[in-house]
Design goal:
Blueprint: H1 18-25, H2 33-45, H3 49-69, E1 74-78, H4 88-92, E2 100-105, H5 108-118, E3 124-128, H6 134-138, H7 141-146, E4 154-158, H8 170-180, E5 186-192, H9 198-208, H10 220-224, E6 231-232, E7 238-239, E8 256-262
Parallel strand pairs: 1-2, 1-4, 2-3, 4-5
Antiparallel strand pairs: 5-8, 6-8, 7-8
Helix pairs in contact: 1-2
């Protein structure tokens, strides 16, 4: 029952959180009744939303392992959401136990959970900040102490840019991070696409209008522009299930496209 749920200080459980909705879709337990209500509504209009969320998480795992195999040892995960194993630092440390990770999210409950999980790990920190404000994130003293931008870094935008409108300059945000990244750095991006099933997309847009779950569904060509200034890694930008898959996959009505770019 909602009244018996333990609520961290500073968390408003009357307002749904996209991070906690995502956690529920992934089968997590760090969510509240208001988040579950939104998630169930999403599932009512787009029944494979849970499958899409899990496919995106699997893409994250494959992409981070790929970056680690290329020698990346420091990562910044923007819009990280509730920690769901395997987390970025767990994946990165399969290749090197000293890998460093910064998790960034604007949801207080994310910071509470990450701080509790990572309290004794000096190589992993959580920054409470909005992805729309890259200058604030980049100026964070703890981030600057942990991340060496003169060395290659992996910057992750996993299903977070569709919460940033074009008016909020989503492309400019990616470009600002690109400016900070040295040659040999990588960006990983996934985003809900306008190429999803038309009926499911129409229903989802109507249901999430004027809510925190409202998303900007971009075309393939629009998503490609996020990779301006990067060399797109094979197999390119495509549905996340198709990016270097480890097994056969089933197409979904809702489509998230993802890709990895290298700064030359």
């Amino acid at each position: 029952m909602a009244g018996l749920e333990r609520v961290p200080k500073g968390v408003d459980v009357s307002v749904p959180s996209s991070a906690r909705v995502y956690d529920y879709l992934l089968g997590g337990k760090d969510n509240y009744a208001v988040d579950r209500k939104v998630a169930e509504k999403l599932l009512s209009v787009a029944p494979d939303t849970r499958s899409v969320a899990r496919a995106n998480r699997a893409f994250l795992a494959r992409a981070v392992r790929f970056l680690a195999a290329q020698g990346i040892r420091q990562f910044i995960d923007l819009g990280t959401g509730i920690p769901t194993p395997p987390s970025v630092h767990e994946l990165a440390r399969e290749a090197d136990p000293s890998a460093r990770v910064v998790y960034v999210d604007n949801d207080p409950v994310v910071k509470v959970h990450n701080d509790a999980l990572l309290a004794t790990d000096e190589g992993v920190i959580t920054v409470e900040a909005d992805v729309r404000r890259p200058e604030v994130i980049l100026a964070d003293p703890r981030l600057r102490a942990l991340i060496d931008f003169s060395a290659p870094v992996g910057v992750l935008f996993l299903t977070v840019l569709h919460f940033v409108t074009d008016e909020e300059d989503a492309r400019g945000i990616v470009a600002r991070w690109r400016e900070e990244m040295t040659s040999g750095s990588y960006v990983v991006i996934s985003n809900m696409t306008a190429g999803s099933d038309p009926e499911a997309l129409r229903n989802l847009r109507a249901m999430t209008a004027n809510t925190p779950a409202h998303s900007t569904f971009r075309t393939h060509d629009e998503l490609m522009r996020f990779f301006d200034g990067f060399e797109l890694v094979e197999p390119g930008l495509l549905p996340v299930q198709e990016w270097r898959p480890l097994m056969d996959h089933v197409p979904t009505l809702m489509v998230v496209e993802g890709g990895v770019g290298r700064k030359p």
